[in-house]
Design brief:
2 copies of one chain form a homodimer. By secondary structure, chain A is α/β, with parallel strands linked by helices. Chain A folds into 3 domains: about 5-255, Thiamin diphosphate (ThDP)-binding fold, Pyr/PP domains (Rossmann fold); about 280-435, Rossmann fold, CATH 3.40.50.970; about 460-580, Rossmann fold (3-Layer(aba) Sandwich). Chain A is globular, with a radius of gyration of 26 Å.
Chain lengths: ~575, ~575
């Protein structure tokens, strides 16, 4: 096989057109085979096979610098830059991460997981190049909806000021993660239909030279256009029309399902391990659809990740005008959500914990200083969420719990989650954020409260000496710790705090009489977190506080159990550490 | 005077064209007079007098909703919506804030201080309007460079999806705070020159109807165009060419100086109170210019606020290609800064504490996960910085100190500041942020260290019983507290921690033997702050910790001394609280 002989992009230079063609087939087979076993970003990588091969044939990486946006489009690049083993041989599958990674290769420059940054990064590299008097090509590969994000525009707007060479390769696959939206999307459609001709060209309006490639899977066409822009002295955009999922029938047909594939049967296209039948996504989506039917003011806002609250294509259709997807544009989504609430609507915005980072300013300013009574839902906010450093869901507590006027809630089971959501949608006073418990679906043993206006923790078991305050997804760990402590002769108190923001001083004061140690358990980083507030609260009292959470040393990929163990967050470890402080029957 | 009779926009409806004309003159006089005494956003408001009058004549606020971007352009709107007294009568000058404020008026909908949000907010209001089946006009007034920010683009891109009416009024004054940059700026210039004609129209490319107003100070032209777009059923942009500073000679000539004016002499245009001769801006700018001369890799990156490190027009010219301004586009600025460092350049980015919020994600991802060795400088990060809730510089500690791989430094005097900056520029390992001391310029009494690789606090006075850890701008408060404690018979230890991120465990452990109370003083909010880390560190030890910082209840405007007093941060109050815990000679 040709692919087996590719150790660096140099090996491409000597291949004939026919051999390059064969190589693209071999790459597709490797991608499909690996992902059928391990899962991964499937459809987007199948769509950039020819673009990536052509780039590495024409340009001279790593002297010339190719920066992949989102970088879940960089699997083919990895294959061509000395990392083919990780796609060919099962024992090496785990050798590479799912994103570009400077620790893996000198052909990768940044850890890129969030969208829309590639043109900015390319502008920065071009600026440094020009200051040094060097002259390499710098290429940003953007697409798969990453052009929707505001930063991409900021950089497109700036590029002209470089007065120098910059190449933007737009992988236009006509998709975001779900469908695509907006004026730019319509413009790209017109360009696709009219072979690159349009009355008002967006890219030209910003000072870019514009090149059009009708078939982004035609190697000859790609090689020709890349040769023509090589060593440009001004900003150029190369608009390549591609098909997301190209070469795997099921992915071509169902692009959203195959954006990120679970392990699957290659013949049938069926996922081998599916989502459990009872899951928070489906539960909350059904609740919201029902709510929408009885109240036309209820509206779900998404930024390309509606599946995180179960809004699949069927449910989006049912919601109709009460569903809004703005594309991968969290800033716009959050300001819009704030304004919908201000104008009397009842908006619910949802996305992954990590993607909220893009809209911190809008949360703090538009949403919270103005006190717009909107609801924000955070998914994947857990050690069990995404396990790449760029997608980790452990930072949101430090962000959301330190914003004025925001109530940040952590349900521990299904009934609490729905009760909090319903309360939040109906109240008209404050912005509210809810952290989805990232565990299997648990159910409440007793009735849950329906009003979350007052910061009031729930003492679920009254004990003494040791009190465990176990937040959200870690509540069940708290239960396990209490059980284990019983065997050590310690009758611990267990608290479900429900609130991440604010402090229930009354409950905390009550602990002082009969407890010497308070443990906080949280599914987030230790810095600036929930536990820090509890430690701060008791800092003048004799009560001891032990914060159990994650240090910020998060590796580029991790296995949840390992990270838990390393941070001494497994129940037995927590118990050991408690006994180390208060002693126990066995000691 | 006509202005005295304007109690609401209704009063405009009956005025003749001549009377409206007279009103615009009276408004200008009021603005200039008030700002000559109090200071404020001068040039931008002088530029939108006619636009605002015409909007309120044609539309029916507050049913029709006018949303001012940045909202430092909203003074005229305030005059016309029942708040004229605050601009006419000195005793009422302080009645209104410098930004739109829902607590002041039903004609204001959001507290808007950061740029580029108005179109998003208008989209959200339009969405809620449409769900309710209402039909008012919703108008975003954007401009004064606020179109540069990515969120504005995200919303322009989305607007078409509303399938409904939306009006964007672009106040094109040909300026940012300093000069304007970029492809969009060049496009607007072409449109200005060619009476609205251009080959590729940016706004049309995104699906907007485009209207052009050659003279944005011509009331008749404005009234006509606003009448023509009233009740539109699709998105329209009205591009109005205006002159920043219009009507005040000095502001027309020196737009950057007059963007925000200090109190001034109306006749001469001279500021009454100037910047002190010795100031951190000038000191650091001169240091950086010298550094640039000997090292062509050093480059200053700005996002429209270069004055915060003293880069005025003369110094920008001297820096030449080693100075970059990307416009009000912090995301692009931060990713570019990261990439310049990655490519071997030595970038220094600077802006106000509050504006970094817009780029939190880029800091955490591109800058810090990838460990790009760039330098970030934070200005106005203090209770003595901006005193409006939307611009408060008290949140950055919670943000910057809880990011992986970032070293966040707090100098307390001039020599430390320059030493930290020089070390940061030269080191090639990690991203570094530096918080400018927001006090008068203090000088070091002893030599300062030149390596900040290790988190090591400086014990500046060895005492016992009580230790004061006084961070950055609050170090001098620590000195004052130590002096006052001496009178109470307490010989306190004083520590200059230098580092906001990280913990110097050795120094903290050493305190345990001879101290019962540790006080932390920081110029930031208490939540997620520096003190919280110290409280967390000691949470299992018998040592008591008192965190002195600001609660998140920050009013929409404040007087620094009052906010200090309210949070018990004045030296005498701190001493009282210490004595309350440890007792003292006088008790």
């Amino acid at each position: 096989m040709i692919i087996e002989k590719i150790n660096s992009p140099d090996n491409l230079k000597r291949l004939s057109d026919d051999e390059l063609h064969t190589l693209t087939s071999e790459i597709r087979t490797a991608l499909i085979t690996k992902m059928s076993k391990l899962g991964g970003h499937m459809a987007s990588n199948l769509g950039v096979v020819e673009i990536t091969v052509a780039l590495h044939k024409v340009f001279n990486s790593p002297i010339d610098k190719i920066i992949f946006d989102v970088s879940h489009q960089s699997y083919v690049h990895k294959i061509l830059t000395g990392r083919k083993e990780a796609f060919l041989y099962e024992e090496h599958f785990e050798d590479v991460s799912g994103y570009s990674n400077p620790e893996e290769s000198s052909h990768d420059f940044f850890n890129i997981g969030h969208t829309s940054t590639s043109i900015s990064l390319a502008c920065g590299m071009a600026k440094a190049r020009d200051l040094k008097g060097d002259n390499e090509n710098i290429i940003a590969v953007i697409g798969d909806a990453s052009l929707d994000g505001g930063e991409a525009f900021e950089a497109l707007n700036y590029a002209k000021e470089l007065h120098s060479g910059l190449i933007v390769v737009l992988n236009d696959n006509n998709m975001s993660i779900p469908e695509n939206y907006g004026g730019l999307h319509d413009l790209l459609n017109t360009l696709r239909t009219n072979r690159g001709q349009v009355e008002n060209n967006f890219f030209s309006s910003l000072g870019f030279e514009y090149k059009f490639v009708q078939d982004g899977h035609n190697l000859c066409e790609l090689l020709e256009v890349f040769e023509s822009v090589k060593d440009t002295d001004h900003p150029v955009v190369v608009h390549c029309c591609t098909q997301k999922g190209k070469g795997y029938k099921f992915a071509e047909e169902e692009k959203e399902k195959w954006h990120w594939a679970h392990p699957f049967n290659i013949e049938t296209g069926e996922y081998i391990s599916g989502v459990p039948e009872e899951n928070y996504g489906a539960i909350v989506a059904e609740y919201l659809l029902k709510k929408m039917q009885s109240d036309k003011d209820v509206v779900v806002v998404a930024a390309s990740t509606p599946l995180c609250i179960g809004f699949n294509a069927d449910r989006r259709k049912l919601a109709g005008k009460q569903f809004v997807d703005v594309g991968i544009a969290e800033q716009n989504a959050l300001s819009m959500t704030a304004a919908i609430a201000k104008r009397g609507g009842k908006p619910v915005f949802a996305t992954n914990s990590t993607f909220y980072q893009r809209g911190y300013d809008q949360i703090e300013q538009e949403m919270c200083i103005t006190k717009c009574p909107a609801t924000m839902i955070l998914s994947h906010a857990s050690v069990w969420g995404h396990t790449n450093d760029t997608h980790v869901g452990l930072y949101d507590i430090a962000l959301f719990a330190n914003v004025p006027n925001l109530t940040y809630l952590a349900p521990t089971n299904c009934e609490e989650y729905i009760a909090m959501l319903d309360w939040s949608i109906e109240q008209q006073e404050i912005p509210v954020a809810i952290r989805i418990p990232w565990t299997k679906v648990h159910h409440a043993e007793n009735s849950v409260r329906n009003d979350y206006s007052d910061t009031k923790y729930e003492v679920t078991k009254v004990g003494s000496q040791v009190a465990i305050i176990a937040l959200g997804s870690f509540y069940q760990i708290g239960e396990a710790v209490v059980k284990l402590l019983k065997d050590k002769g310690i009758n611990a108190t267990l608290i479900n705090p429900l609130f991440i923001s604010g402090i229930d001083g009354e409950t905390l004061d009550n602990l002082k009489d009969h407890h010497e140690l308070v443990i906080t358990l949280e599914d987030g980083i230790i810095n600036g977190g929930f536990g820090a507030k509890i430690a701060q609260y008791y800092s003048l009292s004799p009560i001891k506080v032990m914060n159990k959470a994650f240090s910020m040393n998060i590796p580029s990929r991790y296995i949840p159990d390992d990270l838990m163990r390393k941070n001494r967050l497994l129940p037995v470890q927590i118990v050991e550490d408690i006994i180390g402080i208060v002693g126990g029957r066995d000691e």
